[in-house]
Amino acid sequence: MYRPSQFSNYENQLETKKNQRQAQKQLFKQEQLQDSALIQYYIFEDYQNLINLIYSLITVQNYFENDPNNQVVALSRNKIVAQLNLSNTLHQDLQSKYISKQHQQFIKQERKKVLDFISHLPSEIRNSQYLQTYKINSLSDNVKSAFQQLEHISITPNFNQNVVAQTVQSMQLIDQRINQITSSNHYNVPSFNDVQLKANQYQNITQKKLEASFPKSISLSNQQYYQQQKNSSQYVGRSQSCKNVPQQRNQQINQSNFRNSQFQNKQGQGYLANCTILGKNLG
Questions:
Q1: Residue among 41, 125, 50 nearest 279 (CA)
Q2: pLDDT, averaged in runs of 10, over the chain (283 residues)
Q3: pTM value?
Q4: How far is residue 283's CA from residue 280's CA, in Å, rounded to a whole number?
Q5: Residue 56's closest CA among 36, 37, 76?
Q6: For the chain, what percentages of helix, strand and coil (3-state, to nearest 5) are there?
């Protein structure tokens, strides 16, 4: 004979199973949202870092327009190549980690957004070899390993404790950002203008670092030099010494160039040591 208590137990079992299914659905939905947010974070932050470095290179090239073979220019190019290698590895990881059809479609969708951003860049940047490489090696439907060699540079950065501290701090900030995204299951996808604003800010940082590390010396012209000599007390009553002015001037120029060379070399070491965090911090 069927008892009411048995019916009640049956109802309880059905309710428990229903709650379990709802909990599983909710958990699956949260995991999907979390995965989507992390995919967006990796794709758009990676693109932002690359654009920062490309705009930074433009600033460096303009600053050393009379010295295109300067090691800082080569270093800036190397930073872009290193970032392209990181981008390629990152997109390979996304491709291998998120293998479901839904995930793959979402990755393709977000890559198309980045391609749209690139299409709105100035033509000289949009058509640069770096972005062409980026589109092929990182934004294609089937990403394959494509490691690029860095240029050889003759200056080796010295150990700098401040740079180590900044690197650690940057890594901690990245961890905090990822934890925030995973807990909220949300990432604010930047607009084209958002990316450009940060790239311009990074350009300004680059310009200030260059001016601090490589101040452009202002040398006096010969006419200014003679005028200063004429107005100085040393010049009065010493007409004979005027015969030696060109020789003295050349000696001063040579001494000035030597001191400036030493200064720039020391400053350059510090600048190169500071350039360690790709696209994030110039030191």
A1: 50
A2: 62 69 73 95 98 98 94 95 97 95 96 98 96 97 94 76 79 91 95 98 96 72 42 41 44 43 42 47 41
A3: 0.72
A4: 9
A5: 76
A6: 75, 0, 25
